[in-house]
User: Fold this.
Amino acid sequence: MRIYNTLTRRKEEFVPRDRGKVGIYVCGPTVYGYVHVGNARPYVFFAVLARYLRSRGYRVTLVENITDVDDKIIERAREEGTSADEVARRFADAYIEDTGRLGLGRPDIEPRATEHIGEIIDLCRRLEEAGYAYETGGSVYFRVERFAGYVKLSGQKTDQMQHSEPEREGETKESPLDFAVWKAAKPGEPSWESPWGRGRPGWHIECTAMSLKYLGESFDIHGGGRDLVFPHHENEVAQAEAAGGKQFVRYWMHNGMITRREEKMSKSVGNIFLLREFLKEYDPRVLILFFVGSHYRSPLEYSRENLDEAASRLERFRNCFWRLDELLAAVEAGQLAGDGDAAALDQAVAAAEEEFHREMEDDVNTAGALAASFGLVRAVNEYAEAGQKQGAVSRGSLQRARAALASQLGILGIEFTAEDYQGGELEQELLELVEQREQARRAGDYAAADAARDRIRAAGYEVRDTPQGPKLVRRD
Ligand SMILES: [Zn+2]
Assistant:
């Protein structure tokens, strides 16, 4: 398998540190508000990567942190007149609930910064003892110029850097490049005892401390959004390698950003940019298909059009499973012979499998892999039509095609359950009710329109009137 490594700026053969095992650390959210769709992209991508590696027999440990102590959390608590701890808990719970609805399961370990203060202090002390960090005014700063490998990940020019971290009151930084690994507590902020007095961790040090704790030195893959390369990941490299002397991470993987270029578009999708708002309107698998439909490193335009395209892809897959199941049921019921030609479909399955894996092996090209799955859908549809005409299909081939498609989509995070099939009938019924309501409204028969609306509501849905016409939306 080949992976594009941000560190070397090229695709490299993936060789894990320990044979048969892969450790992945992904930077999760800072929990000071509801997560948006952009936060879901790394969540989905690295879950898909873990699924793929597992399907190839690797034992994968996926670690994704939750930053639950931070300036932004403290600020929000101040605005709300509550504690930072309460804000962090509330939004960590919401994050777990929202991402949980994507149906991808949880990362293996979801460490929180506030539960690793001991490890963080320990790392700060090692940096201080080795001369890579110094104390000023109760805070501890990393001495950037002492670390020779600085900017090797991001390629930033140190003389052009923007310094996001200004000096705090009562502190004197040796160089404007230096960043805090430990911050002295101010009144009312969450704080812990440390060798430098009460304080709290800097953002960068928590990921270094937690990734080293769970995955060890020189672990395999560290990931996150492209916007984290500098300064966050650059600083992580500096901290880990200054403290341990060994290479921190073997492969750095960064996903592209979600863009909303057109003003009009951003207005129309603005209200569903939060993940939980999105999930009120769309099936979670639409978001997954929207993500995997592009290469993870590409920027991705968040538009109504692209989401609708993803929704229609989901329908095409669902219809294909329906069709396969109908055919198998027809064979079962003796309406179709089950010993028809196998070669045509078996060949298509083999070709789709080969193509799917080749694309995934090439820097996790999910877009190419998805195209392979659609190739299989087309082959199934053609085979089904021919089989119905001839009155015979190959039961074994249909089962193999179904299993291959389910396995491919499962790797990409898309699963179909019995509910999907019931949902299909229900949807048909509801769409008829929507149509009835429209006609009644146009005819001025508001009692009939309301009755149709009430029946839709009773089924757990509601009709939303949009510029494109009435739309069926699942109720909360
Ligand atoms: Zn991080």
In short: The radius of gyration is 26 Å. Residues 263-267 have pLDDT under 50 and may be disordered. The longest helix spans residues 304-332. The longest strand covers residues 219-225.
